[in-house]
Design a protein that fits this description.
single chain; about 140 residues; alpha+beta; Aminopeptidase; 7-stranded mixed β-sheet; 7 strands; about 35% strand
Length: about 140
Amino acid sequence: MISYQRCDDLAKSAEMTLRNMRFYYEQFAVDWDHNKILQQITELENWDILYQGKVIGAIRLAFDEDGCYLRDLQVDEAFQNKGIGAQSLTETKRIALQSGADKLRLRVMKISPAINLYKRDGFNISQEDDRFYYMEQSLA
């Protein structure tokens, strides 16, 4: 069973992000380290994704005048392709709506298979650059 809780170990969460994203960072020669990730996520709203009580992922959100920005959705590699990302998007929308947001935005690397998840969930590409798709979905 999947559940969610506010993150209480940002260092562990940052390490999971680094582990999950290492391939993408290497593809684009991004020199990110644990401390840099930890520094970036400290200012976000951080949620753990749990499976049977064990942390297997993270949701990171930022809120602004344009709504909610999904900064990060991480699912441990061993738990990917099991519907957990889709369930976590539903939880993300619930949190965003509860916080008063009417739009959910995100950025995803063009080489990431997560693009398919976001498209299936109804996100539309609003713009792109050489590395990223910028996607959004109305919550209203």
